[in-house]
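Below is how a single chain appears once it has passed through the pipeline. First comes the sequence as given, then the structure the pipeline wrote out for it. We keep one example in the README because the format questions we get most often are answered faster by looking than by reading.
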Amino acid sequence: MSENTQIVTRFAPSPTGYLHIGGARTALFNWLYARGRGGKFLLRIEDTDRARSTPEATAAILQGLTWLGLDWDGEPFSQFAAKDRHTEVAQEMLEAGNAYKCYSTPEEIAAWREANPRQPFQSPWRDARETPDAPFAIRLKAPREGETIISDAVQGDVRVANDQLDDMILLRSDGTPTYMLAVVVDDHDMGVTHVIRGDDHLTNTARQIQIYDAMGWKRPVFAHIPLIHGEDGKKLSKRHGAVGLHEFAQLGYPPAAMRNYLARLGWSHGDDELFDDAQAREWFDLDGIGKAPARLDFKKLEHVSSHHLKTMPEADLLAALENFLSDTDQPALTAQQKERLVSALPALREKAKTLPQMLDQGRFALTSRPIEIEPKAAKALDTVSRGMLKSLTAVLQHASWTRDELEQAAKQVAEENGVGLGKIAGPLRAALAGRTATPSVFDMMTALGREESLARLQDQTELAG
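Resulting structure:
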């Protein structure tokens, strides 16, 4: 391929359901390859199956790609909309002698296959000179001898004996083009230079190459990537848990983490496990894709997610949290909640592996007075502990609101009462958050600020009498 040829990749899903995690990875690989080389990434909706294609599924695919952060060039292309062009190419092949009219009926084909169970169908009309006035399909006149070689950027040379391939139908007897023809015509007309897709398409590729050759079109570079398996090494299915991209979004993995994790599913760059988009675009190449199936590993995904939650820019993290709330139909953050949550982010980043975990840890910043005390936390708020909180509140009135000074004030009150810091941290945690599992009490006080922290403490100390 010339150095001046612009790279063009495409993602071509069928709109018959949700966007599978394997499809999302295929889209990502195509996106990375194009974007890393100043090329184009196109989106084609393969909606020729009118009975199964739905607008809802198309919308779900677009929404999934948008959530994942993959942008495409131009408008999404509808395969069905190009059916006249597909028909035109079939007619061209017919006129050039690279295709022929087949009048075999479904019953005749079924009978032939029953009599020849291990052979591809051989139409009696391939070399017929006289043809009846009856419905016909247009079939490719495929080579019968030799082999078709797929020069694959991942799999190497894949050889398929031509006598194992039948003369596939290009145009059905009702005049509709087949998927196999449509894919080739679309890829050619869209200028696709690299076809990166799952290795379950390898047999299709052998057939499609024959169309390229019959039309005298340049073949694109093919790269067939191994499929994704579950942790048990078996083909990924619902029994393994989440398999749709929307399910991973609902579980609260941020898009940046999903891009990082999916990129490493079947592709590697040395020992690098954690990287950002810029590095992925720079590093990604086809020779880094392995031949063995990748395995979905939720522990690795959590590790990657944790890393990105720690390192994401504050604005991106806040946007991811707000998008998660919106996508899961939860109330939007108020201006005050947002302000407090931003203050709490440094503490919340440390332990959270997902966005909902971060929101759960940050619940103290999202709740309003009076704080609802959970039964387990309420046990820490007896008369003695409320008395200590009252003493602490008096000391804090004059403290500068830094984490170190807040901790020093708590230690001082604990010493005055002859107890360890833990004895005051429990009731302090209950008063501030109403729970037993929270970030550090001093991180919470720093995030809440002087006025809100003291107000929450006073709510409890007033009960001390």
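The first strand starts at residue 8 and ends at 11.

See the next section for the split statistics.
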